[in-house]
Design a protein that fits this description.
The structure is a homohexamer of 327-residue chains. By secondary structure, chain A is α/β, with parallel strands linked by helices. Chain A folds into two domains: 133 residues, nicotinate phosphoribosyltransferase; 179 residues, TIM Barrel, CATH 3.20.20. The first copy, chain A, is built from 13 helices and 14 strands. In chain A, the strands form three sheets. Chain A has a six-stranded antiparallel sheet with strand order 13-12-1-5-3-14. Chain A has a six-stranded parallel sheet with strand order 7-6-11-10-9-8. A two-stranded antiparallel ribbon of chain A has the order 2-4.
Chain lengths: 327, 327, 327, 327, 327, 327
C-alpha cells in the first residue's frame, strides 16, 4: 500500500506526474506517425530571478535523442530570457514538459529568495531552516536550491547530504521541555553530541532570553559557541532591541565570544536590521521555503526547422549567450 | 546514481528529510535513557484555512506506539486550533516533526486556495492545472489537496489516480503547432482519443479566438464539447469581454451547446467575473499551486502527564471538538 | 530666589500670566475712560469634546462685577457651542482671557482623552498615570480632569487629594531593582504598606512576566490583589498574547483571583484589545497627559447691548440650553 | 480655600505632585533601613529633540546629597541619549522622579516645536503666542522653553519676565470692537501706549484686510510699525495670496516700511510659504503650545556600584560626552 | 478672410469637419459601385450618462435616405446601450460619423455634469455660467445641453435664445470697478435695467462681503433680489462659513428676503455644502463646461442584412426599448 | 430653420454668445455716458500651459479702438502670467470677454495636451484623431491647436485646411466590414486612392493583428506604407507586447519597411511605452480633444489711468516680457 502521496523518481521518469494532455498528444502523434517531428523548444521565466533546477532537467532528459542547452545553476536571469533550449523529435521530450517546468519554477523560486537573504546578511551566516514548511519529498530539493542561491547551510539531513555539506541545526524546544531546564539540556547536549558540532543553545524556552543566555554561558563557558533567540511572536519575536541587549549583557559578563543566532519569521529587511545590532547568524524558514515558484513557460519556436510560434510570441529561437550545451 | 533530488517514501519514513536537530535530540535522549519519556504534543496552524495532509501524517506514524487524534481532511480550521494531537513516548515520533509539519503546511495551503476558487466558481467546474509550477515529486500531492479543497478535477496523471478520478485536460499548444492548424489538430484528436474524453479544443494558437471557435465548431459539430481560451498575457489574457463575445458568436452560429473553458492566471476574482459572462469551466494553475504553505507549529504541552509549555504558549492540551482518534 | 518657572495662584490671579496685549488694552481703555464699557463675551471650542475647567474659571472671576453662565464640567460639547458667557464691564474680566482659555483648553483636552479610554475599557478600571509627562505644576489639574472625564483614579498625590479620592499606584521598577528580586520587594511591600492598599506587584523587571507572576502569587498567595505588566517596548510591550498567557498560567496554578493590571503606551484601541483577553485595569499615561488642548476662542458678541462681531463670526449671543448661571 | 488646582512651588518641592508609588517606596525602604542605598540613575528621551528643563531639575535637587550631570538647555539630543545622570542615595531623589520627568518632557516638547518654527522662518521673527492654549500655571514655563528653542519673543508677561525680555504683543480684537473702528483704536493705542512699544495694528476685524491696512497706514503714517493679519479660518485664514496682495497694495501706496505680522494656525510649512511672499513676523500659538511632550524615562543603572538594569535595558551607565556636572 | 477657425453649419453639413478617411472611403465605394450597400449602424457610449445631442444628429441626417432611431434627449443611458441606430445605404451617412459622434459626446458630457449639479442643489437654482471656458462657437450648444441636463438657466445670450428662456446673469466686477463703488453701480443697475430683471448685486469687489451685502441692502431695500458671492480663490473662495455669516447678518438687519447667489469653482459637493447653510442659487462654470465628453462609438452591425461586427463586438443589432424612430 | 445649435462667426462677432451681464453692463454704461471710460484689462491663466487662441482674439478685436498686446501662439506660460493686455474704452471690447476667454481656455487646453504627447513621442509622429469627441463646430479649432501644440498632423479636413497641411488618416473599420475582408479593402484602397496618400491599412477588424499584418503586406508588398493597430479595449487594446510581436513577425517575413501606426486610448505614458518597442506613429484622440480647458480670467487693472483691482488681485498692470503689440 502507498504510504505517501508524493511521486517516486521512477514515477516521474515514467511521465506519470505529467499533465494528461501531453500523454494524449503523444497518443495522437503516434497514431499519425508524427512523433518524430523535429522541433525546437525554449523555456523562459516570466519574471527576473536566479536559476536553479537545470541539473535535474538534465537527468530527466539523459538518454533521450535530444540536444539540450541551458544556463548554469546559480546564474541570474531576466524575465523572458531563454534558459533552456531543446532540439529533437517532439516525442522524445514532450511528455516531460510539466516536470521540467515544475522543477525549474520551484527551484528557481527558492534560490532567488535565498539570494535576497544572503545579500541582506552580507558576510554573516544564512541557514535554510524551512524544511518544516514544505512536503518532505521536496525538502531536500529546497535546501539544495537555497544553498545554490547563497545560503551557507541547511537543516535537512538529506538536503545537506546532496550538497556534501554538514547539516546545520541547534536544538528544538522539545529537548529543553523534556529536560525541564535549559541548562540541564545544554549540559547533556555538550556531553553527548559529537565534538565538532558547535554548541548553540536555544535560550527562550522557560525564562527571559537575556537571563538564560547568561545562565547557559556560565554553565558551558568557552565551550559555548552561541545562543539562539527564537522568541515566539506571542512575545514580540526577535527584535533589534533584544539582540542589542543580549549582546551587551553577554559582553559585560565576559562572554563576547558567544555568538548570537536568530530565527523566526526572518526576511531580508529583518535580517539587515538584526545584523546591524549584532546578530551573527540567521535561520531563515518560510521566506525561502514559501517563496512563490517563478512561473516558467515552454514554447515550440520551430517545427521541422521552420520558425513559428503561437500568437503572442515571436517565432524562432531567441538567443542568450549564457546557454551552454549540457546534453 | 541519484537522478532526482527529491526524497523517496523510504527516505522520508527513515527520517532523512528531517531537520538535523531532531536526530541529535534523539541521540541525547537515548544516551540519557529518556527516549521513552511520555509527552503530549499538539500541532496548530498560524492562520485560518482548510485542513489537508492528516492522511499522510497517519501513514507516517502507523506502527509507532502513539495515540493520535486529528481533524478530518477537508474541514476548516481557525488560527491556533489544535488540528493534531499525539500522545506517547517522544522517541516514537519526535523525528517526524519536520515531515509532519511540512505535509500539513503545504497540503493545507493548496486546499485552502482551491476552496477559494471553488467558492468563486459556484456550480461551474474548477480544474487544478498547476502541476507545471511545482516539483514533480509533489505534483500529485498538490492535485490531491486541490480536489480535497473543492476542485472538480486535476490534470496530473498520478494526482488523479490517487483520487481515483480521471485526469482532466484538453490539448497543449504544441499539438496545434506541430499540426500547423487548429482544425487539423482538432480532427486528429477527435479521431484518435478515446470516445469518453470530452472534445475541448484550444482556440488561441494561430488565429483570433472567436474566429477559431467558429472554425472548430463547424468542423467537429455536435461532437465538440467545448473550446478553451488560454489567451497569453501578451494579448491581454482572457477577459470578460472576450468570453462574452465568443459566447455570442457561438450562439448566433447555432453552437450554444459548446462550452467555454478558460485558463491563464485565474484567481477567485477573475473566476467570478468570467463566470458571470458565461465561462463554464476554469483551469486554475498558480493560484492553487503557488499558494503559500500555512505555517504549522508543534508544541509539547505536557511531559510525563504534567502540563507545561514554552514561554508564549498556554501549558496543557487545548480542546477541539473536531478531533477524532485516528491511531 | 525663584526655584520653579511655573506661576503661583497669586501670580495668575494678578493677571501676570496673561498676554501682554490685554494689559495694554486695559491701559488704553482706562486712559479713555472706557473700562466700564458693558460687553457680552462668549467662549466656544473649535472641535467636539468633553468640558472641564469651568470650576477654575469661576474661581478666577469670583468677586468681579460680572454675570457668568457656563456648561457643567463633564458634559459633552460640539465645535462652536457657547460654553461660557460673561456679561459685564470689559475692565472686570478682559485681563483673564488668556488664563480662562488656557484652563478650558487644556482641561477639556485631558478630559476628552480620558473619556475615550473609559469607553474602550467599559466597566474595567482606568487609572491616570500621566503625571510624569506634564509639568508638576499642572499634574494635579490633569489628574483631576482625567477623573472628570471618566478615569477611575489617578496616581498623583495632589491630584487625588483635590478629588478627595485615594491615589492609585503599584510600585516602581526602582524598588525591585534595589531589593534585587521581585519576590523580596513584594514581600517587603506586603509587610510594610498600609493594609487597605491593594497589593499589585510589577512582574516584568528581572524575569519573564509569566514566571514572575507565578513566583509572586506563590509568595503572597491570597493577599496578592494583582500583577502589573509594564513590559518595555524593547521587549514588544504588553500584547494580547502575553495577557492571555499570564491569565491562563495563573488560572492553571489556582490563582484566578489575581487581577492583571497593564500599562505602557496604552490608547483606546489597545485598551479594547487587552480588555477582551482578560486585562482588568489600565494605567494610561501619555494618551491622556499628551492629549492636544482643545482650542478655545473668546469673542465679544455685543458692546453696550448692541450685537456685533468681528468678520467671520455671527453678531450677538448664540444660545445654548446647557448654560447655567454660575456667578 | 484653594482657588486653582495647579500646584505651588512649595507643594512640588514637598513631593506632593509625585506618583503615590514613589512615596510608598520611600516608606518601605525606610522601614527596611535601605533608603541610603547608593544608586546611579539615568534619564533618557524616547525620541529626538531639543533639550529644555534641566534648570528646573537642578533647582529641585539643590541641597540634596546627590551628584548630578546634565546636558545644557538648548542642545539637541537623540532618542536614548543619557541627558541627566544622578548618583547618590535613592532616598535623596527618588521622590522627584515624576516631577523631573514631567518638567523635561513638556519643556523639551515645547522647545523642539519652537526650533522647527524658527528654522522655517529663517531670519524673520517668531513670537510665542500660545499662552492661551495651556493652563496659566505653565504658560510662563512654555514661553521660556519656546525662547530657549529659538523663538524671538513671547506674549505672556511672566514668561517674558523670566527671560528678562519685553513681552511681545499687538492688540486684541476686543479693543477694536469696543472702539467700534480699527482706526480709532489704532489712534488711541498710538496716543497712550509707551513710545518704545512698536505700533502693530490688527487689520481683519471689521473690513477687508487690504482696505484696513491702507486706512491704518494713512492714519498713523510713519509711526505705524506693522499690520497684523489674523484672518479667522471662517474666512480662509491668512494665505500667501493675501500677504502678497497686502504687501503690493501697501507698497503701491508708499508704505513699504510697514511690516506684515501674521498669526492664526501657523506651523513650519505655513511659516515658510508666508515668509516667501513677504510676511515679516510670525505669531505661533498651538504649534508650540500643543506640542506633544517628549516622553522621558528614568532607569536605575547601578545599585551599590554594581551595574544592573531591568529587562529591555543595558545595565550600567551609558556615556554621553555632552553631560556636565551641575550639582 | 476667415476671422474665426470654427466651422459654419454649412461646412459641417458638407462634411468638411469629418475625418479625412471617411471621404476616402466614399471615394473607394463609389469607384467600386458599392456606395449603395445597405448597412445597419449603431452608436453606443463607453460610460454611463445623460443623453443630449440627438436633435442635432436628426438635423444632420434630414433629407438622407435613411431610417433613424434614437433615445430622447434628457434620458439616462448605461455604457454600451444603443442610443442611435441608422439603417440605409452607407453612402448616405458614412461621411457624418465624425460629426455625429462629436455632437453626442460633447453634449452628453455637458448634460451629465449639469444633472449632477442639479441633484446636489435639490430645489435651489443652478445656472450655467460656463460660456467663458469654451469656444464661443459651442457656448450655445453647451448652455442648451446644461439646461437639458437639469440646469435652471444659462448665461449666454444665444444659448438662452435656443431654449426660449431668458438668459440669467448679474453683473461683472468690471461694472463695479468702473463705477468705483458697489453701491453706485447697484443703484445705476437698478435705475436702468429692465424692471423684470431681478436685482442681484455682486458684493466681493472692494470691501468685505458681509459689509457690502448690508450696504447694498440698505441702498436698494426691498428692490434688492439677491447678493452674489464670487470671492476669488486668493481670498479663500466662497465657504460655508461665509454664506452662514452673510445670511445671519442680513437676517439680523431685517433683510431675510434677500437671496444669496454663489459662484466660483462650484461642483456637486460644494453645492451641497453651501446649500445646507443657506445659499439660494448656484452659478456653475467649469464643472459643466469642462466636463469630459462621453466617448461614443459607431459600429456597423450588419451589411446587406447579414449580422457582422469587427473583433471585440457582438454581431447584429443590440436592442434598446428606449429607441424611437426619429427619421 | 436653424439646423445646428453652434454659433456662426457672425453671431459671435455680434456678441450673441456672450454672457448676458456684459450686455447689461454696456446698457448701463451707455445710459450713464460712461461707455468711453478708458481702462486697462489683463487676461491670465490659472495654471501652467501652452498658449493658443490669440490669433482668433486678434480677429475678434480688429477694427475696435483698442491697443492689444499678447504672447505668441505656441509659447509656454505659467499660472498668473499676463498673456493678453487690452487698453482702450471699455465699451469697445467689454462685450467680448466671454468669447475671448473661451477661445483662449479651450485652445490652450488642447495645445498643452498635444505638447505632452509630442514630448512622449520624441521624433515619432503624433496625429490628432480627436475630431470625433468634440462638436463639429470646433473640431477644426481643436485640430489647429493640436498642431500648434506640437502634433504633426490632424485628421479633420477643415482643421488641416486651416493649417495648410494635408489631413492624415487611414481607413475606417466600416470600409473593411463592407468589403468583408481586410485584403480586399486594402487592394481597393490601393487601386483608387491618390498615389501620394500613404497606404496605411487597419489590421484588427476580422482576424488576429499579426496574421492580418502579414496578409496585407503580402498583398500590397512595397506599396504598403504601414499597418494600423487599433485593437478595441474589449481585446486588451494595443499593448507593447503586441507591437513587439507584430514588428518581429513583419521583420522575419521581410517587411521591415512597413511602419506600425497605433491608436486607441493613447496618452503620453502609453505613447512612450509603445514607442520604445517599435511603434512609428500615434493617432491620439481623447487625450487631446478631451483636455480640460485652462481657465482664464480677465481683470480690469486700471480705470482712467489709475491702478486698481478687485480684492484678491494686485492693482495695476503686471509685466510680462513676452507680450507683443498685435493691434
Amino acid at each position: 500500500m502507498r504510504k505517501l502521496f508524493s511521486a517516486t523518481p521512477e514515477e516521474i521518469l515514467r511521465g506519470e506526474t505529467t499533465d494528461i494532455y501531453f500523454q494524449r498528444t503523444m497518443e495522437i502523434l503516434k497514431a499519425k506517425g508524427m512523433e518524430e517531428t523535429e522541433v525546437l523548444a525554449e523555456i523562459f521565466p516570466t519574471q527576473d530571478g536566479l536559476l536553479c533546477g537545470t541539473e535535474e532537467v538534465k537527468h530527466l532528459l539523459e538518454g533521450r535523442k535530444v540536444k539540450v542547452w541551458a544556463q548554469r545553476e546559480g546564474t541570474p536571469f531576466k524575465a523572458k530570457d531563454t534558459i533552456v533550449r531543446i532540439e529533437g523529435p517532439y516525442g522524445e521530450f514532450g511528455i516531460f514538459e510539466t516536470a521540467m517546468l515544475g522543477i525549474l519554477a520551484s527551484s528557481s523560486g527558492w534560490a532567488t529568495a535565498a539570494r535576497e537573504c544572503k545579500i541582506a546578511a552580507g558576510n554573516k551566516l544564512v541557514i535554510s531552516f524551512g524544511a518544516r514548511h514544505v512536503h518532505p519529498a521536496v525538502a531536500s530539493v529546497m535546501d539544495r536550491a537555497a544553498v545554490i542561491g547563497g545560503a551557507d547551510g541547511a537543516s535537512s539531513i538529506l538536503g545537506a547530504r546532496l550538497l556534501q555539506i554538514k547539516p546545520s541545526g541547534t536544538m528544538p524546544h522539545a529537548l529543553i521541555l523534556i529536560f525541564g531546564d535549559t541548562v540541564l539540556a545544554a549540559e547533556a547536549f555538550d556531553e553527548i553530541v559529537d565534538q565538532d558540532v558547535p554548541r548553540v543553545i536555544l535560550v527562550d524556552t522557560f525564562h527571559d532570553e537575556a537571563e538564560e543566555s547568561l545562565r547557559v554561558a556560565q554553565a558551558l563557558k568557552e565551550r559555548l559557541y552561541g545562543v539562539r533567540l527564537d522568541t515566539p511572536r506571542e512575545r514580540g519575536g526577535v527584535t533589534p532591541d533584544l539582540v542589542r541587549e543580549v549582546r551587551a549583557r553577554l559582553d559585560q559578563a565576559g562572554f563576547s565570544f558567544v555568538k548570537i543566532f536568530v530565527s523566526g519569521g526572518l526576511n531580508p529587511e529583518r535580517i539587515k536590521a538584526l545584523s546591524e545590532v549584532g546578530a551573527d547568524a540567521f535561520g531563515v524558514g518560510s521566506y525561502i521555503s514559501s517563496a512563490r515558484p517563478i512561473e516558467m513557460t515552454m514554447d515550440l519556436k520551430a517545427v521541422k526547422g521552420i520558425p513559428l510560434a503561437k500568437r503572442g510570441r515571436v517565432p524562432g529561437p531567441i538567443e542568450n549567450p549564457l546557454l551552454e550545451r549540457i546534453l
